[in-house]
Amino acid sequence: MALLAEELVLTTEDYPPYNFQDEDGGLSGISTDVLREALERAEIEASFRLLPWARAYAAAQQRPGACVYSTGRTPEREPLFEWVGPLSDNDWAAFSHPDADVEAESVGDLHMLRVGGFRGDATSAYLESRGVDIDYVSHDALNARRLQAGRIDVWVTGSRVAPWLARREGTGPVEQRFVFREVDLYLACHPDTDPDTLARLRSALQAMEADGATEEIRDHYR
For residue 47, which of 7, 87, 4 has the smallest C-alpha distance? Predict the structure, then answer.
């Protein structure tokens, strides 16, 4: 039996442009803004917490009312959560330094390269399951620095994420080599979260898609 959660607790990570800490110390980003608007429309109370991804992901599995975003909805994760969304699209792509002399046009090419990813990320796990060796770090922003320094040949992450992080870290431009998967991003909630609460939130998100509010938020971060 589902337990009623008076307030949702939404955990997330630093993953721009979907979720990140802004200059004022608050949470911003496409997914954050979409969720805030949907919560207001549905009259649902929620608190937001910024954590390292592994902790944010684990928190959503600990008790009803706990959710994590922006979570790629994959077959492996499907039975673990109740899914609310999608909040945005998210292509998984491989990036290199613009001046790098590397052959990276397909997943097969990655087997011969030093590939940077971060722990707990579905993008890296997807490639690793296909035999690609991943050189892991704890935070994705570190890969922007490693790519510039030549410590990795290729960085695998979201297609919108790499340019944002590279600009923020001041590491210079990155070149997208190819997209290897298209995955939508969702709010993933503990399976015993109150179903009425989630239904109201889903209805609010559907209304936002219909009236153009979601697209307006996405356009703001392009």
Answer: 7
CA distance 151 to 138: 15
Kindly report whether the peptide bond that precedes residue 203 is cis, defined as omega within 30 degrees of 0: no
Answer whether 121's CB lies under 8 Å from 53's CB: yes
Could you tell me the strand order of the sheet in which 66-72 lies? 46-50, 8-12, 66-72, 175-189, 82-96, 154-158, 115-118, 134-137
| Res 201 pLDDT > 80 | yes
User: What DSSP element (H or E) covers 31?
Assistant: helix 30-42
CA-nearest of 160, 178, 173 to 98 is 173
Question: Rounded distance, CA 135 to CA 114, Å?
Answer: 7
154-158/115-118 β-pairing? parallel
Tell me: pLDDT of 5 over 80: no
Which residues pair with residue 178 across a beta bridge? 94
